[in-house]
Amino acid sequence: MHLLAHGGMLPQYPAPTGEKKTSPRRKGVKQGALLMLIGAILVPIFGVMSAFAPGRIEDLFAFFAALCAILCFVGGPLRMLFAAIFEDGAKAQQYVAAPSYMPPTMPPQRARISALPPAAVNTEPWRSRPQTAEIVQPPSVTDHTTKLLEKSESENK
Description:
The chain has helices spanning about 1-5, 25-50, 55-85, 110-115, 140-155. The chain has five helices and no strands. The protein starts with a helix and ends with a helix. It has a domain at about 45-100. The mean pLDDT is about 80. By secondary structure, it is mainly α. Helix 2 (about 25-50) runs antiparallel to helix 3 (about 55-85).
C-alpha cells in the first residue's frame, strides 16, 4: 500500500533529532501499570504486618492493606483507561521524499504491448504411457487356502 501511494518508493521518515519524548498516553498507561505493581507489593506486606501486629496496630495495618488494595487495583486500571481514551498519543511521522529520487522512465508504447514473449506451441505429442500390464499379480490369500482345502478333501476320500 505504501509502495503504490508513493510511486514505488518505500517511505523514508526523518531521523529523530534531539531528546525523544514519550507521549502523555504512554506515560498514563505506564503510571497505571506502576500503580498496580506497587499495590501487588504493598497489599501483601500490610496483610502480613496486620497478622503479626498486636492490638490496635493490627486494625491500622488492615485498614492500610484495604486502602492500598482499593487505590492500586481500582485506580491503576482506571488511570490506564483514562490515558488510553482521553490523552494524546504519539505524533504521526511525516513522509519525506528522497531528494535524489527520479521517477522511472516509461518505455515507449510499442514496447509495452509486446512485453510478453509469444505463446509457446509444442507440435510433438505427449509420450505414451508405459505398458505395465505384463507384470504378474501375486496370487490372493484365498486362492492358497482353497487349494489347501481341495488337497485335504482329496486325501479324505
